[in-house]
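Why does residue order matter? Because the sequence determines the fold. Keep that principle in mind as you read this record.
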Amino acid sequence: MRGLWTTAHVREAEARALAVTRPDALMRRAAYGVAAVAAEVLAGRRRVGLLVGAGGNGGDALWAGYYLRRRGIRVFAVLLTPDRAHASGLAAFRRAGGRVVPALPPVDLVVDGIVGLSGRGPLREVAAAHVAALDAPVLAVDSPSGVDPDTGAISGPHVRASWTVTFGGLKPVHALADCGDVRVVDIGLPLPPPDLVELSLTDVGRLWPVPGATSDKYTQGVTGVAAGSATYPGAAVLSTGAALLATSGMVRYAGSAADLVRGRWPEAICTGSITDAGRVQAWVVGPGMGTGSSAEAVLRTVLEAGVPVCVDADAVTMLANTPALWDARDPSTPVVLTPHDREFARLAGPVGTDRVAAAHRAATRFDAVVLLKGNTTVVAAPDGTTHVNRAGSSWAATAGSGDVLSGVLGALLAAGLPPAVAAAAAARLHSESAATAANGAPIPASALLAAIPDTIRRARRPLGPDGAD
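Structure:
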């Protein structure tokens, strides 16, 4: 499990640490970490360029140049604001034999020390021109310059980093934007509890419901699936299959695709009507279901059932189009909404540049967990808890992939996991399954679905049969 901290909380921790350390101590500690990573990725090559901005971020780069010079590496620095360059860092850099130049010569690696955590908006014209001229991979100090450190938003010229070295702890940008290979250097910051959490696959393995000696199909969780239509019967097949593969309990399918689902998944208990489905411990509603009056009646019945509900796809649209449907929900019924950006916009307005804030606004408004899909998925709970999951690839951006996610999530809800935890675990398993199935090539959602068991095995591999290490 990885924590991420907002820049405000990092700044507060830095202030507390600076109050009890000698001048430049934290900066030199951080810069030594940057130099160590730079030397590692250089792999014997000998030329480094620094793009140096004002203040602390530029100071980190200059001190890193000092340590690289002590390793015998040639280092060149462009001072973007010479009159505001970090004084002691620049003096140390020059003392070690570093060269200040108007433009970088050919180098093997560039260290981005343009702006740090205080940077907002795109690069300014001079910095943007130097970045555009680069012909070497970039190592960013703290976060790539021109990328918002709290939201990951990009609004113009910015640095594209192959590596990022950050200090004390991860920041939101490291999950919300592409920062390359991110390394964390411990500089002794007294950080508070994290603002965001990202589950690892091993964390998912620890959370995954595992049957015990006294388990049966009912105690493991019975998942209801209301999905599919004459136009989109495959959505029913995919979401039902995902629920079956995610746990070892029971899945009850209700809808017009009953025959097709039964033919593909003989284990599922299938019926053509929601009223005949029987008791379940959680519902998945919406994938491929349509938005007509009969679909609205199904959604209303599901919301009245008093069990946790994963509201996906067409069901999200119906709630957006007919807000009165919310009245069918008992206030104590847990709901997880799983919109992509366009569905979110219909439900709660445009996502905008701050995906975390948008998800939290919706979570508070609807008193529901919101799983905002994307390459980085944000899971926001009404209590302020936030999980993020960076997929690392986009192979899951394919038709039917969301149906698979909803089935997995519904099964975890039926097994009794708290809604936000279930959503975060499902998102992680989903992205890992996509990467496993794709292995660098395009895949359909059915291939992602088939990869679920192997991904669960991989998640649980470090654990013993009882869930212990």
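DSSP finds 17 helices and 18 strands in the chain.
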